[in-house]
Fold:
Amino acid sequence: MTEPQPTPPGPVPYREAYARLSRIAAELESGEADLDRVLPLLEEAREAYAQCRERIEAVRGVLAGDWADSDPEDESDAD
Structure:
């Protein structure tokens, strides 16, 4: 079995965090993780989930902000 991966400093790309969640889920679902490994896996999964959620919320924020308020027809009239 592999040890939990340390979290790199700075923002983690969404795909990387999602891949970590997928790997952890597969290991837990397989039943191969011994009891001593479950807690570190769950802690790693919590971190990866938080990173994914942060990235999704950032995108939602952008989409709900300026882009949602602009009308493409208004932009063409501004020329």
